[in-house]
Amino acid sequence: MAIDVRGMAPLLNVFDMPTSIAYYRDVLGFEIVGTDGNPVPNNDWVLLELNGVQLMLNTAYEADERPPSPDAARIAAHRETCLFFSCPDVEGAYTYLREKGVAHQPPKVAPYGMKQLYLLDPDGYELCFQWAAEKAERQPKA
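RE: above sequence
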């Protein structure tokens, strides 16, 4: 018998929690559904949710150990992590995110048939909003 899994909530370590909360809540539209008890946005941990999708953010450093700026090597390693969001209206997401000033490249159809919009969050984590492309979009252009 397989394990009965009903969801997943990835945990991302972030450098500046107020900046990350502003991005995920105010730009992407996530709602804060759980915190460490500190007043928002001065948290060390938050649980976010959008349409049943959950994501946890945790500060990478304790407040008294936080360096003045992010460690470049640590941020570079964040590019190794990509969160793929199922998004039926990728073009609509692109328009919305462009209006918010965060989507710079239009969506593209991957060779395996997914229409994808990629962007980076404030900590350098890659985010992809994707949905199966229509067959007409996958046709090679003559």
